[in-house]
Amino acid sequence: MTGIEYKLVIKQIYINSLKGIKSSLTSISRQLGFSLEFVSTLIESLVEKGSVEVDPDNKYHLTVVGRKLISVVLTGGTFDILHVGHLFTFNQSKLLGDVLVVVLATDRNVEKLKKHTPTNSQEDRVELVDHVKAVDAAIIGDEDDFMKIMDLVQPDIITVGFDQKHDERDLYNTISSKGYSHVKIIRLQKHVSGKSTSKIVQEIIKHNYRQFDDDNLETLLKFPD
Amino acid sequence: MTGIEYKLVIKQIYINSLKGIKSSLTSISRQLGFSLEFVSTLIESLVEKGSVEVDPDNKYHLTVVGRKLISVVLTGGTFDILHVGHLFTFNQSKLLGDVLVVVLATDRNVEKLKKHTPTNSQEDRVELVDHVKAVDAAIIGDEDDFMKIMDLVQPDIITVGFDQKHDERDLYNTISSKGYSHVKIIRLQKHVSGKSTSKIVQEIIKHNYRQFDDDNLETLLKFPD
Questions:
Q1: Less CB within 10 Å around the terminal CB: N or C of chain A?
Q2: Under CATH, what is the fold of the domain A72-187?
Q3: Would you list the domain boundaries of chain B?
Q4: B126 to chain A: nearest residue by CA?
Q5: Chain B contact for A114, CB < 8 A?
Q6: Cα separation of B54 and B66, whole Å?
Q7: Whole-angstrom distance, CA of residue B40 vs CA of residue B108
Q8: Class of A3-67 per CATH?
Q9: Residue pair B160/B183 in contact by the 8 Å Cβ criterion
């Protein structure tokens, strides 16, 4: 038994807390593919070390000490139509820590900010992103207050995509004033493909509208900002 | 140590063979997150049982006996724009066996069959699908001969999506005549969302072309078969 198995249990308890899943011996055993006996031994030792605590219903929770044994990376976006640029964002972000949490903008916020409805609903988008190998947990953002997500996720690192409009300094000032001055904000590099959802939408339209002449196409391809 | 770890090693050697990755102690240890010593113990025992053989370069290969210890599910398609219906296909297929291999139609074959170029290139499509949790290996299909993929993958089960046009009997007759009469062909159910790439493309166009009146939109939304 090495340190890896302990970390897997801690990660799982953390991920379950984000997804509203209760961490019991049974759930952790099923999720990690470890035997009940093995999970039980690992948890006992984690409780002894003060990393995990048990509630009256025999559900497990991380203590502050336990939470510090993993580093959590948070990234966010709309992720309406998955493309290789998104995979790059996820893979790069995951390299920076132990757990990658992705927060997705709600449909209403996408409409407000991008002035168009996403093609995939927030439920479909979160399901798609949650199925990506590098992603440990995808969650839907808060409609009004980003700090609610900060308080839930408690990230150590926030990554920002190369083309996202956030100003890192503004973001840092906002979160610092709420007690998150220890959080690092990292802007990711551009993926070589240069893919973006807008470009993909343009491609889709080009491929399906050959009957239009180029002038028309130019007009068609103008997006709201 | 339970049977699970042996199976993981066998799965990894099989997946590596599809992806052209050499299976050495180092590569398997890195891929599974197991220590070199642990992988070494597992492999020694697998060699002893006749499930794995070693070549002169100390690379590992499955024997016929070893390959029979896992069941392989093969599914295929274009998978141009990933949606929750695809996840359903992958998850359902994965439930039927130990390893899920997804074969993607080449760009040229998509053009021939669907009369339009895919939005994402075959390289991007294979990368996207390969990053889905349920998928063990995504590979690009053969341009001319499906049997080459059969000979490479040697599936135990083939799943066909609810909306794919293959006739299961025709497919079965073709593969049986080439020595694959033991392979089961299973047609999957429809996902509740009823999502399909064509529908998503329609959604994308609707969302981006509000300036068109409905009549025009109807014309626009006609796809080649």
A1: C
A2: Rossmann fold (3.40.50)
A3: 3-67, 72-187, 195-225
A4: A84
A5: no
A6: 13
A7: 43
A8: mainly alpha
A9: no
